[in-house]
Every structure is written in C-alpha cells, then in structure tokens.
Design goal:
Number of helices: 14
Oligomer: single chain
Strand content: 15-25%
Order of helices and strands: EHEEEEEHEEHEEEEHEEHHHHHEEHHHHH
Radius of gyration: 29 Å
Distance between the termini: 36 Å
Helix content: 40-55%
Length: 485
C-alpha cells in the first residue's frame, strides 16, 4: 500500500500511474488549482474500504487475507498556519470514530519538539503544543524511525533548513498487532521530502532489512526465581566448582549464566504456548462444566493463573516499570512498555565524523569506540599542575572519620550492601541482577563474601569481575550522532 500527498495531479493522471505501476486499487482526492492532491494505492493482497476523505486525509479500513483488520489514515496538513486548528480538530474527530487498531501519518508540516528542526527561525512553542495535544487526545504514539533524522529540507542561499515534518503514528491496538514494526526514512530523491517506508511486523516476525545487533546479552529473569529447576541448577553448579577469589567468582557466574540460558530456551521461551494450550483446555471444560469435570476445571484454572503470573513477572522486569505491582494481570501493559523501551534503546544508525550515515555493526562500533577513546584520553598534565589543583581543595575528612573509613569490613557489611540493591534494576556485564543474589544468597553468599573481603581487606586483585558496561543515554529523542548521547 502506498500513500502519496501533494500529487498535483488529476484522477486521470493517477489512474495512468496506477496501471503503469501494477497496483490493484486506488483512491484519490484531486488537486485544487495548482496545489494539493492525495492518492492511496494498494495491491490485491489486501481489501481496502473507504471510510472518509478530504483535502487533508484519506481514511480506510484494511483487511488482509487472514481477516486481520486495522485502520489507516493518510494525512496531509496544509502548511498555512491559519488552517492548523481546523486540521487538528479533524484529527481528533478521526480519533473518535473508531477504537480499531489505527496507523496514520504522512506530511504533517509540523514538528513535535524543537530539536526536530535545524536551521532557520525556531518553531513557535504553541504550534508544537497543538500537535502534541491532538496526538495525546487520539492516543497516538510516534513509531520512531531508522535512518536520517530530518524528512524535509530546503536551502536558501547559505542557510539549510531541515525539519522532521513527516512521521508515522499508531494507537495501542495497532502497536499490539504489529509490535516489531519499523519506520524507515529513505533517501531524498526528486523531492524535498523523504519517503517513509513502514514494515509491518508481528511479535513473531523480524525485519527483512536485517538486524543491527544479532544477539542480546544474558539477563537473569525475575520469573525464574520460583522455579525449582532453576534453584537446583544453581545449587548443583555452584557447589561443583570452588572459587578462591573474585576472578573465580566471575568465572562461576559466567558458567552459571550459560547453563541458565540453555535451560531458559528449553522451558520459558515456550511460555506463550503453555498459556495458550492451558487456556484452550480451560475454555473447553468451562463451556461444558459438570460434576464429572469440575475438579479438572479447578486444576486448569490454577495452572493458567500460575502461567499468567510468570508471564506478567517476565514482562514487568523487561519493562522496568516499577510503579505497578504484579497481580493485576498487567501483562499487556508491561509488554507494550517493554516493546517501546526496546525500540527506544536500539541504536539503528549514526552519522560518522565525515557526515555519512552508518548502520553496519562494525561501523557503529568504530564510531562509538573512537569517540570514547578521544573523550577519555588524558592530556598528560604535569605533576606540578596536579599539586596546584589539590592544594586548593579544602580537607573535609577528619582524622576520626578517616579512622572509621579504614576499619576492616565484615561479612554483614557485604550482605547489607547486596540487599540494599533494587532487585530488578539493570545488571552488570555478567547479566546477574540483584534478585539473583537476594534469592540465592544461602547458596552463593558465603563464597562471594569471602572473595569480596579478600579484595577490600586483603588487597586481592579485582580481575574480570571489574568489567562494566557503558550505557548510552540519549539526550534527545531519536539521536543520530554519538555526541547526542
């Protein structure tokens, strides 16, 4: 399906284009004078039903061969700011029409935030506020993008103005239907607007364009802690090897993580299948409940509740949303949060120091590594300069306080520090979140405590357990340069 705006063409001209390109169906809104014109083209793989249309939109219901239904609205907002209120009112009315899964977008001739414009005069805040208010009213979320940030540019003399005027938006129902979808900003060619390509991907589908990062890191999941198999695996593994120092502990954690990941593949990744089968069996008995099957009905109900609780805890940890607690069947909510978080945290491409857009993994690694090497390379100041700076710093640590700080650490100090950590916050390089230590401290605590006290009290080396991960936090939405993290 292809949506075109500002076609500057009549219906007859667009019909000739449809035949030439081999599309099955077409809807058009003719130009008015020397401006405007909308067109929607589609193949015979879907059925399209017109819901409404105007100079600024074409709204349709889309049905695929598997009977999946969703709604698409192609939008075009006239750049005349005097008509802005009229357009946002139209968008709100479209939002009130239906609760169907909804994808909409096109040339909106407006930005959501100031950083979406570069060059020229700054955009008035009240104009951006009106756009945000309309999208919030409709429950629409920006789908993000892959590729260059700005979708429109125009050069005047020596000033280049660039803006992100084109975008795709979806409501919660559409994000549930196609949670892995991608929006691509394609190359500028023959127009001052970039074409946008939306790849519709369900939860079990991956992009045909290729993934940037092939495999995620190991993470210990909260949903594992109540599994007897998990506890037995850790117990048997931990007691099979002795760790004399922190390097040994780090090696045991790595080997334990490998075994846990294998176990996870064999059991927890089939959790959705288990839930579906249990629900099917429960529904079948529930429709024909009798004295002969009511005990089986109770058993299946308990099984289904337990599986859903596991699913909820799994997505809760991935979403990092700690203000909701387990027990309210919030799996759908947590799944949406996790999907949005994954999309936001994925670096799909960066502009290198030569101004070239890079998406390949090797190129991205080089950009990031070069930047941090440059950032953290010392300018090698002289010892005299150091002394001059240190001499200006007032002493704050009293001899009494220094004596307290130099006291020998005890085992209880280590345990207290571990249990003060938030259980499901992001783990370190070994992937073991704090809940692993909280739950299995009777198994792992003694050896970890001894190794750590050997470091803080005995001066033993830290070794590989001191490895860490640098997390890049974006300063702006959809960053395109390493300096924007």
């Amino acid at each position: 399906m292809v949506f075109l705006s500002e076609t500057l063409s009549s219906k007859a001209q667009m019909e000739r284009l449809r035949v030439r390109l081999g599309f099955f169906g077409m809807l058009t809104w003719d130009r008015e004078g020397r401006s405007g014109g909308l067109c929607l083209l589609w193949s015979d793989s879907i059925h399209v039903q017109l819901l409404s249309g105007s100079r600024g939109h074409i709204d349709v219901k889309v049905t695929s061969h598997d009977s999946t239904c969703w709604r698409f609205t192609g939008l075009y907002r006239n750049p005349d700011t005097s008509l802005r209120t009229q357009f946002w009112t139209l968008l709100k009315r479209l939002g009130d029409v239906s609760s169907m899964p909804w994808l909409c977008g096109g040339d909106l001739n407006e930005i959501l935030f100031g950083h979406e414009k570069q060059g020229g005069a700054a955009r008035a805040q009240y104009l951006m506020n009106a756009f945000r208010e309309a999208t919030n009213y409709c429950g629409l979320a920006d789908l993000g993008f892959r590729g260059p940030k700005f979708t429109w540019n125009r050069g005047k003399n020596t000033c280049l103005v660039q803006e992100q005027l084109d975008r795709m938006l979806g409501n919660g129902g559409w994000l549930d239907l196609f949670p892995n979808s991608l929006v691509l900003h394609l190359n500028l060619r023959g127009s001052d607007h970039r074409p946008l390509l939306v790849e519709l991907l369900r939860a079990d589908e991956s992009s045909s364009i290729g993934k940037i990062w092939k495999r995620g890191r190991f993470h210990f999941e909260e949903a594992w802690v109540d599994e007897v198999e998990c506890s037995n695996l850790i117990k048997n593994h931990w007691r099979s090897i002795t760790a004399a120092n922190l390097d040994g502990v780090a090696n045991k954690l790595r080997l334990c993580a490998t075994d846990l990941e294998r176990w996870n593949v064999a059991s927890f990744r089939r959790l959705k299948t288990q839930v579906r089968k249990a629900k099917t069996a429960f529904d079948r008995i529930d429709r024909n409940l009798s004295n002969q099957n009511w005990k089986e009905h109770l058993r299946l109900e308990r099984t289904l509740d337990a599986l859903r609780y596991k699913e909820e805890r799994y997505w809760k940890q991935k979403s990092k949303d700690l203000w909701l607690k387990c027990g309210d069947k919030n799996s759908k909510f947590f799944h949406q949060k996790a999907s949005a978080r994954k999309s936001k945290n994925t670096i799909t491409g960066l502009i290198d120091q030569n101004g070239q857009w890079c998406e390949k993994e090797e190129g991205l690694a080089h950009i990031i590594e070069s930047y941090f090497k440059s950032l953290f390379t010392s300018s090698s100041p002289s010892a005299t300069n150091f002394d001059q700076v240190l001499d200006t710093i007032e002493t704050k640590i009293t001899p009494q306080l220094n004596g307290q700080l130099e006291q020998t650490f005890e085992a209880e100090d280590v345990r207290t520090a571990v249990f003060q950590m938030a259980p499901t916050k992001s783990p370190g390089a070994d992937g073991m979140s704090a809940i692993f230590y909280h739950k299995f401290w009777p198994i792992v605590g003694e050896e970890i405590t001894a190794a750590y006290l050997g470091f803080v009290n005995g001066g033993h080396p830290l070794g590989s357990i001191n490895e860490t991960i640098i997390t890049l936090l974006p300063k702006i939405k959809n960053p395109t340069r390493i300096t924007e993290f």
